[in-house]
Specification:
This protein is 9% helix and 62% strand. By secondary structure, it is mainly beta. Strand 4 and strand 5 form a beta hairpin. It starts with a helix and ends with a strand.
């Protein structure tokens, strides 16, 4: 058994040592615009209507390129997945705009193609994350007469407290991206990228019967800067 383990270790060393010798560590910063859409199964929730929201993303990507065409990429991203909801029918006039902050950790396989300076690339993988906080701004109709004998709406802008029985703060999903990178110096390059993230996790726990499911569908358009730590 020990001899077999030693032989396997020797074979693995012969295979992976040349690969690791050619590998490159890279780190960078990135930022851009996020367009998020709330995907909701309507169920009985016929008078609630959802629209997307636009906000931002920043992140720190770390890359490990095994070859010029293949590598792995992981990062830590802070982004917002916003959306709005308005009511119709008897509750017409109610409007709520939500700002939801997330921390995401995507992990990608990275495939690159092109020349020595300008290269296109594809990312494929998934992400884990956490829902950090939520704020809501909007209008709520008063459905009872006020002191001046009129119906009216009041404006609110406040933090939304999490309810551990209802809110699912764990976030996970699949993600992919396409982009172009330009190397303008031996250790420095810039890139532009379009990315898509789909949350497989529902924003809500199962706390009632026939509840609508809520999933984030997110596009990110960003640019960034990459520094090569180790060169071939």
């Amino acid at each position: 058994m020990n001899a077999t383990i030693i032989k396997l270790a020797a074979i693995a060393a012969m295979v992976f040592t040349p690969v690791l010798a050619m590998a490159q560590w890279k780190v960078g910063v990135e930022g851009g615009v996020v367009i998020n859409t709330m995907l909701v199964s309507k169920c009985y929730d016929y008078d609630r209507h959802y629209t997307g929201g636009t906000n931002g993303i920043i992140g720190i990507p770390i890359r490990y390129d095994f070859r010029d065409w293949f590598g792995l990429q992981a990062e830590v991203s802070y982004l917002t997945k916003d959306y709005s909801m308005y009511r119709s029918d008897i509750y017409k006039g109610n409007y709520y705009s939500y700002t939801n902050s997330y921390i995401n950790i995507p992990i990608y396989a990275r495939f690159s193609f092109g020349g020595p300076k300008v290269r296109g690339y594809l990312l494929a993988g998934g992400f884990l994350g956490a829902w950090l906080d939520s704020y809501v701004e909007g209008y709520q109709m008063r459905y009872f007469l006020t002191e001046d004998f009129s119906y009216s709406a009041y404006h609110f802008d406040e933090k939304v407290p999490f309810d551990s029985r209802r809110d699912n703060r764990f976030d996970a999903g699949v993600s992919g991206a396409i982009g172009v990178e330009y190397q303008f110096a031996k250790r420095f390059s810039v890139f532009v990228e379009g990315r898509y993230l789909y949350s497989l996790t529902d924003m809500q726990k199962e706390y009632m019967m026939r509840q609508p499911s809520k999933h984030n569908s997110t596009f990110a358009f960003q640019t960034g800067f990459i520094y090569t730590i180790t060169t071939k």
